[in-house]
Design a protein that fits this description.
mainly alpha; elongated; about 70% helix; Serine Threonine Protein Phosphatase 5, Tetratricopeptide repeat; single chain; 9 helices
Length: about 260
């Protein structure tokens, strides 16, 4: 596993079935064979046939969840994992692995729609935490938990910016610019008064009038405008960089295969 890339580890742990199996187990075995060949559509068919025989069979639900996850049907995968968790026959290890995969399903749903992903990120964090209670030494779950918490934090910050501050940075920039314009008008009035007093105190009728040089207030106004433009451009650059980083994380956040069996 390359630690330099963000990844979401899916525990693809196909449930082993005994040699002397009943009918549901026979279909599960058929599904497992198709799954290992990466024929996920065929595997889904076999797992669903197993559920037609016994709709409460937790192995069928778990393995069907894995297949749906591989086909990027994260919503239905989450439902199958949730159904598997209702079984009292799961061992602590199996329950932890199922919670891990359930967390992955919610995390992927959040990544697919980040603008509305907060609740999915919350669910992912909760399931990873529950999985770690049952298997505290699972580094994959711990890593995914950290990643989900980071995504949740970003979603919360985005919601605060959108809901708490109106138009966020753009609105703040407009408020600052408006205040600057008010200060500028005040400075202009004071400057005009000072210049008028100076002309009255030191008249020079022999001096030829020429086009005046920009006064200090005009220079200050020009400087404020330049500063405002630079600040606005910095905000835009920061937003572009944030989106670029998020897109990089989404691309790198694809699950990798772990070849283990129950």
């Amino acid at each position: 596993m390359k630690t330099s890339r963000i990844h979401i580890v899916l525990m693809l742990l196909l449930i082993a079935t005994p040699a002397l199996a009943q009918k549901p187990n026979g279909k599960v075995r058929d599904g497992n064979r198709q799954y290992k060949r990466e024929h996920y559509d065929r595997a889904e068919i076999e797992y669903r046939k197993a559920l037609e025989i016994d709709s409460t069979y937790y192995k069928s639900h778990y393995n069907l969840g894995n297949t749906l996850y591989r086909n990027k049907n994260y919503t239905e995968a989450a439902r199958q994992y949730g159904t598997a968790l209702e079984s009292a026959n799961l061992t602590p290890a199996q329950r932890s692995q199922t919670l891990h995969n359930l967390g992955n399903s919610y995390l992927q749903q959040g990544l697919a729609d980040k603008a509305n992903g907060m609740e999915n990120f919350k669910q992912a964090v909760t399931n990873y935490q529950e999985a770690l209670k049952l298997d505290p030494n699972n580094d994959d779950t711990r890593y995914n938990l950290s990643y989900a918490m980071k995504m949740l934090q970003q979603a919360q910050q985005q919601q605060q910016q959108q809901g708490g501050g109106g138009n966020s940075d753009q609105q703040n920039q407009q408020n600052k610019q408006q205040q600057g314009n008010q200060d500028q008008q005040k400075d202009q009035s004071q400057q005009d008064q000072q210049q008028q007093q100076g002309r009255q105190e030191q008249p020079n009728p022999n001096q030829t009038r020429t086009k005046p040089e920009p006064n200090q207030n005009q220079k200050a106004e020009q400087q404020r405008r330049q500063d405002a433009e630079r600040m606005l451009e910095a905000v835009k650059n920061n937003e572009r960089q944030t989106m670029k980083e998020q897109n990089r994380q989404v691309r790198a956040g694809k699950p990798i295969k772990i070849d283990k069996d129950w």
